[in-house]
Write a structure and sequence with these properties.
The protein is of the alpha/beta class and about 450 residues long. Among the domains are: about 5-100 and about 130-240, Rossmann fold; about 395-445, no CATH class. About 50% of the residues lie in helices and about 5% in strands. It is built from 16 helices and six strands. A six-stranded mixed sheet has the order 3-2-1-4-6-5, with helices on both faces. The protein is globular, with a radius of gyration of 23 Å. This is DNA phosphorothioation system sulfurtransferase DndC. It comes from Nibrella viscosa.
Length: about 450
């Protein structure tokens, strides 16, 4: 066991108890080895504090891009359920929160709907939409409530030279907190000095205080020969890249070694995902698969022959067909809960195609052919379009209300999907209070 751990726990206790502002802690949890050790060390440190003095709330935030590796998602979901159950039973000031991108920001709505090319280093449009923005919104909400917040990350200097330099550059001299890009937010990295071999030794020897063991986590890493994708809170956070667990659609790297490793170790049901991911990579550089005009307002503006625009309608439809076919094959072997694209995304894609004057083929036609159903999506698309128009008209004098109403509707829908509406009224009231507070401070941007 690392001799550093007693000092780290003591420092965590000191940071927690002796903060006059009682700023809430936000722990970025990805389910990987680093964030798991971070949460475990913090949890065990707080257990040593008398219950009556554990008066600062700790939010465990896990961001789901909706295109994470399905095997990893299943593992993380089980872990999050254990965390919340154990926190309640043990009386810990810890709550679990999942963040997801907005419907218009999801990977498939942008790639299949709008025709955005698969991400590349020079145009990594996915990071901000799928990772930074959802987590940022949550952090900003907590800052609005408390004035300031401290973000705890499992970043370690041992992970890479680039990360070490970044951490050193942003750290305050003589302090463990460093300023975050967000106003009134600070970053604390308790395990930054832990080396990789110390980390694995700790996880294999010390059971998680929320129950169970780390055997499944260790097996996942062994089978995938991989690393985890860190919670991304700004553009300075390292991308997943190389062989790290992350989005199964990632084309920033030439090969997804983690998925290859899982398939090679028996998870051959993931082969359709690999095929689609490789097709995305291939078509990105195929001139015939791209429009000769950039995506601006619909209809497109004609440009010169050298312009590489969005994917053609034909390629977008082929991607959707491959995606739905992969989903169907996986559901037949892994269960219907294994969802690669949501119904809401399908409706949003069809609406986007209509806006781009793409009327054939239709999303419902592709879906019905693959699933042998007779679903009519037109009414859902028209309803969504009418709702958007009515909302815009109703908020014509106060356009900033559009986003507020959409977020409150999302809260309601999420509670309904989770089959438990407990706390819905409190969530809605809190969101409204935050909006009013921002408005009074003059931080709302008017459209």
């Amino acid at each position: 066991m690392s001799i550093k751990l007693p000092f780290i726990e003591a420092e965590i206790i000191d940071q927690y108890l002796y903060d006059e502002n009682r700023r809430p802690w936000i722990i970025g949890f990805s389910g990987g080895k680093d964030s798991t050790m971070l949460l475990q060390v913090v949890w065990r440190a707080l257990m040593k504090i008398p219950a009556e003095t554990r008066d600062r709330h700790v939010y465990v935030v896990c961001n789901d891009t909706l295109v994470e590796n399905p095997k990893i998602v299943a593992f993380i979901n089980r872990t999050l359920d254990l965390l919340q159950k154990a926190a309640t039973e043990q009386g810990m000031p810890i709550s679990v929160h999942r963040t997801t991108p907005r419907l218009e920001d999801t990977f498939w709505v942008n790639l299949i709907g709008k025709g955005y090319p698969a991400p590349v280093n020079s145009f990594r449009w996915c990071t901000e939409r799928l990772k930074i923005n959802p987590t940022t919104r949550f952090i900003q909400e907590k800052i609005s409530e408390a004035g300031e917040a401290i973000i705890l990350l499992g970043t370690r200097s041992d992970e890479s030279q680039t990360r070490a330099r970044s951490m050193k550059r942003h750290e305050r001299k003589g302090q463990r907190l460093r300023k975050h890009l967000l106003p009134n937010a600070f970053v604390y990295a308790p395990i930054k000095d832990i080396e990789t071999n110390e980390l694995w030794q700790y996880l294999m020897q010390v059971s998680p205080p929320w129950g169970g063991t780390h055997k499944e986590l260790v097996t996942l890493y062994r089978n995938a020969n991989s690393g985890d994708c860190p919670l991304v809170i700004d553009e300075s956070t390292p991308s997943c890249g190389n062989s790290r667990f992350g989005c199964w659609v990632c084309t920033v790297v030439s090969r997804d070694k983690s998925m290859e490793g899982l398939i090679g170790n028996g998870d051959d049901w993931m082969e359709p995902l690999m095929e689609l991911r490789n097709r995305l990579l291939e078509e990105r550089s195929n001139r015939e698969s791209r429009e000769k005009r950039r995506r601006t307002d619909s209809p497109f503006k004609e440009e010169d022959e050298n312009t590489w625009g969005p994917y053609t309608p034909k390629i977008r439809a082929e991607f959707l067909e491959m995606l739905l076919q992969a989903q169907k094959e996986i559901q037949e072997t892994q269960g219907e809960l294994m969802e690669l694209i949501t119904h809401q995304e399908l409706v949003a894609i069809q609406l986007t195609w209509f806006r781009d004057s793409i009327f054939q083929p239709k999303v419902a036609d592709i879906y019905n052919r693959i699933y042998n159903t007779n679903i009519d999506m037109t009414k859902h698309v028209e309803k969504l379009r009418q709702e958007e128009e009515l909302l815009q008209q109703a908020c014509a004098e106060n356009p900033e209300h559009v986003e507020l109403i959409q977020e409150m509707l999302t809260l309601q829908k999420n509670k309904a999907l989770l089959m438990r509406k407990r706390g819905l009224q409190q969530d809605l009231e809190k969101r409204l209070e935050n909006f009013i507070a921002k408005k009074h401070r003059g931080t709302i941007v008017y459209a």
